[in-house]
C-alpha cells in the first residue's frame, strides 16, 4: 500500500459557518507519525473527522481513501465505510469512555468490531480477547486498574485507557484529535510517548492534532499545518522554524527553536515544506 491516507481536493463548507477546508490534498505513508497543527479554527479537527467519515465533504469534488479503501467520494460515504472504520482507532480529547463501566469493559469495547452481534450483546469475550485487552492495558501502564470504574480515573489515565481500547481494536491507523488538550504536562508526555511507541514499535500510522508545537516537533517527524482551511506547511517538523511558526500562527511569539528536540523524520509521503 503506497499511502494509508490519501486526500484529494477535499473542501468543506458549513452552512453559514463558511468554508472550513479549501481543496485539501495530502498523502500519508504507512508507518508515519504526523502532527496536524495550526491556529484555533484552522480546520484540524474537521479534517481529521473527514478521514474516518465522521463528516462529509462538499459534493462538487473531493475524495478520501484510507487503508486502500474509499471513505468518501464527492461528499458521499462509501457503502463499506464501517469496514474501514473498524481499522481506525479514534482517540478523542474527552476520551469517550463509558463512565459507569469498568476499565476492562471499556477496553473490550475495542474488540466489538471483530465479534458477532450476539457475543457483543452478551459481553461474551474469549480468553484471547480478554488477554489482548489486559496486554493493551499493560502496554499503557493501566493494568492495575482493570476493575476500576472509568469515572474514577484522572484525565490522563482515561486517555491511556482509550488508547488501550484502540490497541484492543487492533486498529491499523490511529487518529487522535487533540488527545492532550485537557491534560497536565506530565500526563501529556506519557500519552504522546505511548502514541510514539505504538508508531515506532508496531509500525502503526498515527495522525494527531495538536495545539502544542513543542510536542508536535518532539514526537512527530512530519507536520502538516493548516491556516484558515488551507495547508500552509507540509514537511519535516524539524523545519518548523520560529519564522515559519509565526507565519502559520500569525504571531511574533515564536522566537526560539522549539524547546523539545525533534524526532528524526522516518519517511514522508508527498511531504513538502511549503511555508
Ligand atoms: N459543526 C460545525 N458547524 C459549523 N461550523 C463548524 C462546525 N465545526 C467546525 N466549524 C467551523 O469550521 C472551522 C474549523 O473548525 P475546527 O474545529 O476544525 O478547527 P480546529 O483547527 O480543530 O480548531 P481548534 O484547535 O480550536 O479545535 C471553524 O471556523 C469552525 O467554527
TrEMBL record:
<protein>
    <submittedName>
        <fullName>Phosphonate ABC transporter ATP-binding protein</fullName>
    </submittedName>
</protein>
<keyword id="KW-0472">Membrane</keyword>
<keyword id="KW-0547">Nucleotide-binding</keyword>
<dbReference type="GO" id="GO:0005524">
    <property type="term" value="F:ATP binding"/>
</dbReference>
<dbReference type="Pfam" id="PF00005">
    <property type="entry name" value="ABC_tran"/>
</dbReference>
<keyword id="KW-0813">Transport</keyword>
<dbReference type="InterPro" id="IPR003593">
    <property type="entry name" value="AAA+_ATPase"/>
</dbReference>
<dbReference type="InterPro" id="IPR027417">
    <property type="entry name" value="P-loop_NTPase"/>
</dbReference>
<dbReference type="InterPro" id="IPR003439">
    <property type="entry name" value="ABC_transporter-like_ATP-bd"/>
</dbReference>
<keyword id="KW-1278">Translocase</keyword>
<dbReference type="InterPro" id="IPR050086">
    <property type="entry name" value="MetN_ABC_transporter-like"/>
</dbReference>
<keyword id="KW-0067">ATP-binding</keyword>
<dbReference type="InterPro" id="IPR017871">
    <property type="entry name" value="ABC_transporter-like_CS"/>
</dbReference>
<feature type="domain" description="ABC transporter">
    <location>
        <begin position="5"/>
        <end position="253"/>
    </location>
</feature>
<keyword id="KW-1003">Cell membrane</keyword>
<dbReference type="InterPro" id="IPR012693">
    <property type="entry name" value="ABC_transpr_PhnC"/>
</dbReference>
Amino acid at each position: 500500500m503506497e499511502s494509508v491516507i490519501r486526500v484529494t481536493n477535499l473542501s468543506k463548507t458549513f452552512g453559514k459557518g463558511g468554508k472550513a477546508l479549501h481543496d485539501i490534498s495530502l498523502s500519508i505513508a504507512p508507518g508515519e507519525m504526523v502532527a496536524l497543527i495550526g491556529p484555533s479554527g484552522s480546520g484540524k479537527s474537521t479534517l481529521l473527522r473527514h478521514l474516518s467519515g465522521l463528516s462529509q465533504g462538499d459534493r462538487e469534488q473531493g475524495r478520501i481513501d484510507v487503508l486502500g479503501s474509499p471513505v468518501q467520494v464527492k461528499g458521499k460515504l462509501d457503502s463499506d465505510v464501517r469496514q474501514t472504520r473498524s481499522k481506525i482507532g479514534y482517540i478523542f480529547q474527552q476520551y469517550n469512555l463509558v463512565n459507569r463501566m469498568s476499565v476492562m469493559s471499556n477496553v473490550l469495547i475495542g474488540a466489538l468490531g471483530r465479534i458477532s452481534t450476539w457475543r457483543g450483546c452478551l459481553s461474551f469475550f474469549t480468553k484471547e480477547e480478554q488477554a489482548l485487552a489486559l496486554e493493551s492495558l499493560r502496554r499503557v501502564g493501566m493494568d492495575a486498574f482493570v476493575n476500576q470504574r472509568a469515572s474514577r480515573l484522572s484525565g490522563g489515565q482515561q486517555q491511556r485507557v482509550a488508547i488501550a481500547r484502540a490497541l484492543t481494536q487492533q486498529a491499523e491507523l490511529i487518529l487522535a484529535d487533540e488527545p492532550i488538550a485537557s491534560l497536565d504536562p506530565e500526563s501529556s508526555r506519557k500519552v504522546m510517548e505511548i502514541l510514539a511507541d505504538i508508531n515506532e514499535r508496531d509500525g502503526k500510522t498515527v495522525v494527531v492534532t495538536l495545539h502544542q508545537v513543542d510536542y508536535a516537533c518532539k514526537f512527530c517527524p512530519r507536520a502538516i499545518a493548516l491556516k484558515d482551511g488551507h495547508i500552509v506547511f507540509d514537511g519535516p517538523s524539524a523545519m518548523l522554524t520560529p519564522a515559519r511558526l509565526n507565519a502559520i500562527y500569525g504571531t511574533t511569539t515564536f522566537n526560539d527553536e522549539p524547546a523539545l528536540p525533534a524526532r528524526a523524520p522516518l519517511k514522508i509521503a508527498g511531504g513538502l515544506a511549503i511555508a
